[in-house]
Amino acid sequence: MASASVKAPVQPSVDVVTGAYRVVSTTIKVQTDGREELYNLSKTIRDFVRSSGIRAGTVMVSSLHTTCAILINEWQEALVHDVKKYLSTLINKDDYFRHNDPEWSDCDRHNADSHLRSLMLGMNLTLQVAESDVVLGEWQSVILAELDGPRERTIRLQAMGI
Amino acid sequence: MASASVKAPVQPSVDVVTGAYRVVSTTIKVQTDGREELYNLSKTIRDFVRSSGIRAGTVMVSSLHTTCAILINEWQEALVHDVKKYLSTLINKDDYFRHNDPEWSDCDRHNADSHLRSLMLGMNLTLQVAESDVVLGEWQSVILAELDGPRERTIRLQAMGI
Amino acid sequence: MASASVKAPVQPSVDVVTGAYRVVSTTIKVQTDGREELYNLSKTIRDFVRSSGIRAGTVMVSSLHTTCAILINEWQEALVHDVKKYLSTLINKDDYFRHNDPEWSDCDRHNADSHLRSLMLGMNLTLQVAESDVVLGEWQSVILAELDGPRERTIRLQAMGI
């Protein structure tokens, strides 16, 4: 098969960390500005993990909403523009949706497109923690994608491990 | 940059929980009714977490299949209808796929579209657990999206933490 | 409502595992071959988990990049072909993107489409671990989707639990 299995991956070293398990959590609020907007949460998450005392484990970033998303991408101004534009056209807001129709729904935000986009993108992210820091690649940022703003959004952070 | 970093998030309090780590798991079965259908798993997951004795940590919800998905959305009747309709049109089932072609594949379900949709949506979800309950926003429900039913589906739940 | 809640799921048994929590991590490299290509990581992940000594918990599979993705699907040759073809057309590479425009961006890879596709698919996956093995359904494989190769990709694996 063309797409063969991975052969002989390099595994230069394996790190093992042991100790008492702890769970440290907090809630952050983000006031968003537009219907679609992106917010870089990386520094906030890194600061939280460092202050949590967790050396190895994971950190979860969870939106408590159904019309915004958490994702990873490069935080480059040109690309942020492209992502916002792409997300704003992923679903045609003006298509007919029962959720937007007073005959079927008591929601007056007419945001069915925001629900569908969030559902495709995901509202939770788990990241690895190592050496008291979030494991992110050089170009990776953790991004809150507002898809039905402006609003105040609540994001729960939870660091878990040793 | 228009999409600025998050400034001064409110971190009113940080909770820390320590104790002995445990892993509690179970398997649930869901008999689905149509080719596309949605099932609200929230109560089942909440009941499992409460009975697990885990106070703080995470719960994982994992489909053991490749043609159904686990997602979060609001469980409103009008919106459930919209989501089902949207998911049923995300991929054109009648496009040519090798997976549906007896020349290339021994699968007689002709469900390439179901594979592609599941892959886009995701088959695993991790949720935070705090105070012996699943952390979900007011409007969030955990939903099993059947994309190639009717079938009996197996979902593995695993609560982990203190 | 048509899409009713799950009723009386079968919960034949609940397993509980307790013990000392450990975090075991390693990094693997994958040299990719084409602009779009799929790689089956399942065996590599399984071998890592078995060698980690973790009996129950989770394993995280994290790409440290922004133009490749980690997903689950069936590893059937016909379907692998379909998935590659689908992913290669998910975004029109030739649409205008600022990220590809020297006026706006210093990135000379012209890979805005790869960023957008990765963002939709996700770059992290958490899987359950039970009885010293990764919990995967019969047809599930963990797949690295290269979306801007060929390149050498770095994937961090982290097994956590008891």
Question: What's this, in brief?
Answer:
Three copies of one chain form a homotrimer. Chain A has 162 residues and is α+β, with helices and mostly antiparallel strands. Helices cover 21% and strands 35% of the residues of chain A.
- Number of β-strand runs of chain A: 9
Distance between the termini of chain A: 42 Å
Mean pLDDT across the residues of chain A is 93
Oligomer: homotrimer
Order of helices and strands of chain A: EEEHEEHHEEEE
Which band does the percent of strand residues of chain A land in? 35-45%
The biggest beta sheet of chain A is recorded as: 5 strands, antiparallel
- Which class best fits the helix and strand makeup of chain A? alpha+beta
Radius of gyration of chain A: 19 Å
Spatial order of the strands forming the largest sheet of chain A: 2-9-4-6-7
Total DSSP helices of chain A: 3
The percentage helix of chain A is: 10-25%
Low-confidence stretches of chain A: none
Overall outline of chain A: elongated
Most extensive interface = A-C, 50 and 55 residues
